[in-house]
Design goal:
Elements: H1 2-8, H2 11-30, H3 37-44, H4 47-53, H5 63-100, H6 112-118, E1 122-124, E2 127-130, H7 137-158, E3 160-165, E4 171-173, E5 179-189, E6 192-202, E7 208-214, E8 219-221, E9 224-240, E10 248-252, E11 256-259, E12 265-277, E13 283-284, E14 294-305, E15 308-315, E16 319-322, E17 325-342, H8 347-367, E18 371-376, E19 379-383, H9 389-404
Antiparallel strand pairs: 1-2, 2-18, 3-17, 4-5, 5-6, 6-7, 8-9, 9-10, 9-17, 11-12, 12-13, 12-14, 14-15, 16-17, 18-19
Helix pairs in contact: 2-5, 3-4, 5-7, 7-8
Amino acid sequence: MKKVLGFLRSMRFGMLLLVLIALLSILGTVIPQEQTLEAYQAAYGRGAYAIMAVGLDHLYSTWYYIGLYILLGVSLLFCSVLRFGRVKRAKGALLQAAERAEPLQGFRAADPGAVLGRHRFRRCGEGYLRNGLGLYGSFITHLAMLLMLAACACVFALEVKTDYAVMVGDEVTLEDGTVLHVDDFAMESEGKLDYVSTVTAVLPDQTVQSGTLRVNEPKRFGRYKVYQQSYAYAGQLDIRTAADAKDERVTLDSAAFISLDGARGVSYMGSYGSYIRTADGDVLPPGFGDQQGEPVDAYMIAVLDGENQEARLQPVDETFEVAGVYYTFRSPMAYPGLRVKTIPAPVMPALYASFALLLAGLYLCFFHVPVAASVRGDGVALKSPKDIEALEDALRGQSETTRTE
């Protein structure tokens, strides 16, 4: 059991966990998260099935990623608890070690205590101690890492995710009044497949911020972090109520029945694709009955005109009339799906506080080296867990100055 506990609290085990977490985090950054199988196939080909099989599409919520964090937490907990007990005994042990140490060569002073005082030593029992807080450096560092791990876990567990489908030119209002407006969306950038949204945010204090979102490249607007999460297509239909009237554009993001009188009109089924037009003018799926023809883009619709109903494939940019109303389907418009993440207000300050505590612990470890001193007549003996050659030289020089005076 002691060997198991020793391994769990060992630096080797902690470093191994950190390396594994870092490697997996890099994978989670390189591979877009929570995408569809089709999106992974477009980017990685046959490798998409392996990504889905081992959970790399939702890496940060997989059992093995969470398990590594739990093990790291257990390791840090053991280290923190054990070091707290050691810190309580470390001061006395360091002072006793100074009493047993060899006197510092070349140091002689009429009042060694005064010389030590000028070098920030403080009386501690029968001896002297400098930078006593440095004894707590390792404990504070491990405690800060444990608190930071807990804060990160709260970020993952308590964050609120909300998905919005926003048409280009439209906007959505968030809980605190922040308004997100989608200025533009493109599925290609510099000739490559790349889903890009341009978003303008108006914060509650009327501050205006703009940003470009890409997959795995979110932007923060106020308290919200906004991700380019997905995309979808919306049909576009121009309608005019007379042959010489002005077209009115309707955007269709779901199946709908478009009619003026509620009885005669067009039923939009939400299906769009590439088909063929035969020599007879029929629009058919490719390869249907070995028919040949020219390619044409079309919507699947149903036309209702009184008692007559007809399901058909309607090519884009071709106008047709139903009950005196003229309809023209246009090429569909792609629009983004945005994921908005936010976390409870106290979590981020706790994370920043743990980071500040970590910096304080590291400072104590590396720049606040504890030193114990024991006075022997007109000399002193020093003891420290680290190299203190510069301090020894300074004390020798101080003792020479004291003798000269």
